[in-house]
From TrEMBL:
Residues 1-20 form the signal peptide. It comes from the Bacteria. Residues 161-182 are annotated as: Disordered. Keywords: Signal. This is Bacterial Ig domain-containing protein.
Amino acid sequence: MKRIKVIICALLICISAAPAWHVPRAYAQTQTVSATVTFRVVSAADYQGLKGARVIVVDSSGRVITSGLTNSNGVWSVPLTVNSDPRFDGLGVVTAICVANGYNENVVFEVPVRQGTVQPITLYPVKPKLRNEASASLGQLHHLDVIEIVNKYASQMGLERQPGLSGESGYAPWGPNLKRAE
């Protein structure tokens, strides 16, 4: 019996001293991003702001985190705190669903949560005898964020860059070939 107690104590000590990589991801601490995001909703008919359009903000886990109505200029600003997206450095993303009377819905995926974000949303008027249904668009990710994600995953895959263009400085696109072992 004493031997079993010693074994159990030894196992408990080993488990408690396990390295951090052994901790399941669900228990790992998640970084968050906080920023005020501005939504600018316009009509596709005349590109004027739409007053009273509702914007529903959904986080990456599919949970509605907030909702609000646009002002007389078609603008609604909201402070958001969301989990940092591991694909980007210091950036969170949400999905925005926008609805307004007389207009078809628009779902905007990958809306960046970073200070200074202004996300335009264009709604198309409902028209008789046409296919009136929701549309989808992509959020206003900054071109440097797009370059960052391409660089991150192309490097991770071990891809080679294409030859740079004559007169073009600073950036050469990635190609499909894997780097050769040296």
